[in-house]
Amino acid sequence: MKSFFKICFFTYALFLFNSCFAEEPFSLTFQTKESEHFVFKARKEELFLAEYALEALESAYKEIGQTLEFFPKEKIPVEIYPNPETFSLGTTLAKEIIEKSGTVGVCKFGKLMILSPEQLPYGYRWLDTLSHEYLHFLIELKSKSSCPLWLHEGIAKYLETRWRFKNPSYLTPGNRTELVQALKDERLISFSKMEPSLVYLKDQNDIRLAFSQTSHAVYFMEHLKRKAISKILEELAKTKTKDEAFKSIFNLSLKEFEEAWKEFLKKEDLTVSPGALPDQLNMKASGDELEEITGTDIRGYIRLGDRMLLNKSVDAALIFYEKALKLEPSNPVALTRAARRYLEQGKKNEGLEYLRKCIKENPNYSPGYLALAEKMILAKNWQEALRLAKEANGINPFNPQVHQMLGLIYQELGEAENSKREQSIATK
Predict the structure, then answer these.
(1) Do 286-362 and 366-428 have matching folds?
(2) Non-local CB neighbours of 15 within 8 Å, separated by 6+ positions
(3) What is the pLDDT of residue 26?
(4) Rg for the chain (alpha carbons), in Å?
(5) Crossing angle of helices 228-238/126-142, nearest 10°?
(6) 275-316 tens-digit pLDDT
(7) Are 371 and 340 in contact (CB under 8 A)?
(8) Segments making up each domain of the chain, as ranges
(9) Under CATH, to which class is 2-268 assigned?
(10) Predicted model pTM
């Protein structure tokens, strides 16, 4: 009897996850803005996000639509929830699960829902998250609700940056480093254990590893067959079993595919980036970078460097920052601190090199983009400054500094309307 109830529970949980078109459990009063294919809904306080969200989603509609060979005809609702409590009500996910798993986006009830990036001290890749949830919407329709959970998440993760990159950037250096270590330690999570949803895995570390595994497995698919993603979704929609679909497209059963992917992963010889920041979403973070995103091995060196700065000893501070970087050469906090000190000393090449390394190794770390954008503004390199400021806005749009920068850059580029909009947002 216990087994029966357990099966019923997991079946129902899977239904909730995949139920993009069930009835909505409650409603909130939102203001709306529309584009050609999307309806953006948010409170007045978050409505300024519509400009960026709709632009990103329309790009996703075009670029991802071409990849999946699928274009929805009806407009898709998009909702921004101001806090975990309303997000919990809107998604029907328990608040405890949201906080434990770091869930910030859900596709359900025929719409895309995300948590306001204001709720996380460091922000998060909210535009990529909208793209990710849009992918779930497409996958569900194209596969006729027949896509296995691990593949659902793998495709969404693999293609979530396709709206802004021709070649998807699906595995950040920090996540890649964790994947390499998990392979070495024989800690890979089987695809079957990811059912009925990643949010029910042990913790964020396992959830992040699952995303890395499944997205890399989709990368493997693309190596096996041209247009593999679109073809497997089409086959899943028309065949009786998932095994039949995989055998039809890859000549491998699901189990054989998983084993083949593991062998492929072993031969990849992926590089590691010690100190690079993985995609950790902590809704209860205090904003103390030293405590929350640096390892204990280097924290002491960075603190000593900070103390030297208080004594106005830049050279001594750099010695300690460099000691930290010797242990974790990709750590974003150590890189930005050292970069600023080099730039203060007039060592432009060293400073810019560290800032560029920071954003390359930590593409979801907003302060790195802002620090480099400042230098591009001083150099009057307006196009590069614009690109960097937009990246920061795609992570933390509630930081006034981002919009102050964008306002100045647009003014210099002669885009008066955009400049006025950004300056208005910065002063709110």
Answers:
(1) yes
(2) none
(3) 55
(4) 22
(5) 40
(6) 999 998 988 888 889 988 898 999 999 999 999 999 999 999
(7) yes
(8) 2-268, 286-362, 366-428
(9) mainly alpha
(10) 0.93
CB half-sphere exposure, 72, CA atoms < 13 A: 23
Q: Reduce the DSSP state of residue 406 to 3 states and report it.
A: helix
DSSP states of 154-218 as a string?
Answer: HHHHHHTTTTT-SS---S-HHHHHHHHHHHHTT-PPPGGGG-S-GGGSSSHHHHHHHHHHHHHHH
Q: Is 10 helix (H, G, I), strand (E, B) or coil?
A: helix
Predicted confidence at residue 27, as pLDDT, reads: 61
- The answer to whether the beta carbons of residues 57 and 37 sit under 8 Å apart is yes
Architecture of domain 286-362: Alpha Horseshoe (1.25)
List of the chain residues with pLDDT < 70: 1-27
- Residue carrying structure tokens 């974003």: 332
- Which DSSP string do the residues of 298-348 spell out, in sequence order? HHHHHHHHHHHHHTT-HHHHHHHHHHHHHH-TT-HHHHHHHHHHHHHTT-H
- CATH number 3.10.290.10 given to 366-428: no
Q: What is the pLDDT of residue 293?
A: 87
Cβ atoms of residues 148 and 128 within 8 Å:
no
Integer angstrom CA distances of residue 369 from 9, 365, 375, 405, 412: 44, 7, 10, 11, 19
Q: Do residues 4 and 40 touch, judged by C-beta distance below 8 A?
A: no
